[in-house]
Amino acid sequence: GGMDFETQQFQKREEEALQIQHEAYLRAHPEIHKLMTDFLNECLIHRPQNIYSFAKAYFLPFSKSVPRYPPVVLVGPQNVGERTLIDKLCANMPDDFALLQLYTTN
Fold it and tell me: DSSP H helical segments within 1-106, as ranges?
């Protein structure tokens, strides 16, 4: 069951081409090395049990710098259900919605 010689050679050439592309990208973006070094240092300092949650929290501020959507403002008369809708949006889509401030005019 292994690959035949031609398939192995093709795969090797593809891997080498991809390696060259990756190296060119990294040379064009030296900030990636600093970013990853900083992240690795934070991991070694904090030694998180859940690396995925730690990574999400670490990189989240970078994603917040450019909002994906414009702000949404919900208004309505008292007891119409804005808060229920807000709570559901925040619970079901936490990466897209957050409650910043609720103002009322009572």
Answer: 5-28, 31-46, 51-64, 82-92
